[in-house]
Amino acid sequence: MKTLVSQPSSAEQALTQWLRRFNKRVTNRITGRFAGKHIYALVHHRGRKSGKSYQTPVVAMPFGDSFILPLPYGADVDWCRNLFAAGEFQMEWRGRMYTLHSPQRIEPQDALAAFPKWLHRGLRRTAVYLKAERAVGPDLPLDPKIGKILVYGAGVLGSLYAGKLAQAGYAVTLLARGQRLQELQEQGLRLVKDGSSQPERITVQLTDHLAAEDAYDWVIVIVRKNQVASVLPALAANQHTPNVLFMVNSAEGPGELIQALGRERVVLGFPGAGGQRANGIIHYQITSRALQATTLGELDGARSERLEHMAQALQAAGFPTAISGNMDAWLKTHVALVSPIANAIYMAGGSNYRLAHTRDGLVLMVRAIQENLRVLKSLRIPLTPAKYRVIPWVPEPLLVAALKIAFDTPQAELVLARHANAARDEMMLLADEFRALARQSAVTTPAADTLCSYLNPETPVVPEGQAKIPLRWWQLIAAVGALVSLVWLLTGLRKLFRK
Q1: Which domains are assigned to the chain?
Q2: Interstrand relation of 148-152 and 218-221 (parallel, antiparallel or unpaired)
């Protein structure tokens, strides 16, 4: 199906030509200052007749092993003609220099999948795009800080992070085994962004093991919590990798990791993405910074140089990234939230949509989360990030109403429900870890305990729409009463001072 592009009138064509000349002389000099960042790139090319070197700021986004550039003024502009004449050029994008070759014109319907949705409206009049293949090989970062990276685990998230880091120009090896390794060898690593139908194929090196003599700058471990114990012996035997980032759910702390590898090698983190694998293709969504950034942290909370370097690499790969000063507390807070969410999904038969229309499930989920947060508070574990500290103060009816809307979406299915259904064994382990924390406190957790019973697949699910548990309205009434009292007090004081 072809994408329709508005055809410009003669007046619009004249305006376009004027803008083209204006941008060449004025705008390009301004945008050139921040080219190479975000969606902007800096194309290095030579005049096809003069041989003179030029730099032109453009919009560019990667797609598989290629880059796609919109040509709002068509392919007849000077810099574009230079690229076609040369057949090869270099481009600076997000701190790295890429060698690109085989430039070709493509249609909008073949190009738009590479660009974020918020940019589509601005590209609606662009009728032609340039696609150029990336030379896989010696391109290096302009300021090299991280060399070789091993991503340990080729599940949904491991594949996504390996692919995006490789696409950003880093030397990435993906460790996969069994059927997944065979799949990657035969079909390559293929990613599809949520909302798109076009897979992008990305070249990554593959291996099926980590040898004791292998040397990497970083190993990024992205596996389920119940798989960590099987990973540690190989990591412990390898003493040539100084930095091991564990992007793993955990409520029990990093003691096991420290004992196996030593404190100085361990870095904690958590991914900010979700998705599923279907027919060998990873369908993914990268979550926003406001929802959940990819988060990293040192054991001592320091903002170290190595942490800054990894954060920059992940940011360059397209992941909103944050550094936490207490990553252990961050992980415990995360389990306090996701464990009730997963268990409520099981209560609704594994469907986020059924959960959205089953008030009892939402009520139990809200109460279980609040109980878990009280457990952390009683153990003096700070709620991290700080935005979650408002949850205990929000009236229950408002939380239930908000979650009803949030769970009735395809995004909740992709990021929450599909992972919960695929990782029930991990959720059982996380629930056990958090219940061990609860036993150390004096906090009772009746709602959380009720939801935990649905971890057992044989527990009957509740009927869709069940609403037997009454909502606790007193918080909302108290909040409204406090607001009315405050307004009354301020009004009274205003009248008093006027006298």
Answers
A1: 19-134 (2.30.110.10), 148-325 (3.40.50.720), 330-478 (no CATH)
A2: parallel
Full-model pTM: 0.79
CA distance 162 to 146: 14
Q: Tens digit of pLDDT for each residue in 211-230?
A: 999 999 999 999 999 999 99
CB 304 within 8 A of CB 243: no
Burial 399-421 (b: 16+ CB within 10 A, else e): bbeebeeebeeebbbbbbbbbbb
pLDDT tens by residue, 232-255? 999 999 999 999 999 999 999 999
Give 123's contacts (C-beta < 8 A, 6+ positions apart). 70, 72, 108, 112, 115
Angle, in degrees to the nearest 10, between helices 396-407 and 359-378: 120
Q: Where in 273-387 does DSSP place strands (E)? A: 273-278, 281-286, 294-297, 321-323
Rg of the chain taking only CA atoms, in angstroms: 26
pLDDT digits (tens, 9 = 90+) for 158-184: 999 999 999 888 999 999 999 999 999
SS3 assignment, position 353: helix
| Two tokens, residue 468 | 């037997």
The identity of residue 49, as a single letter, is K
- C-beta separation of 67 from 39 below 8 A: no
Q: Tell me how far apart the alpha carbons of residues 326 and 255 are, in angstroms, rounded to a whole number.
A: 15
273 alpha-carbon distance from chain centroid: 3
CB atoms inside a 10 Å sphere around CB 129: 22
Say whether 258 sits in a helix, a strand or coil. Answer: helix
User: CA 231 → CA 206, 239, 262, 426, distances in Å?
Assistant: 17, 14, 15, 15
Give the SS3 label for residue 458.
coil
Ramachandran area for residue 279 (φ above 0: left; ψ -120 to 50: alpha; else beta): left
Burial of 99 (0-12, 13-18, 19+ CB in 10 A): middle
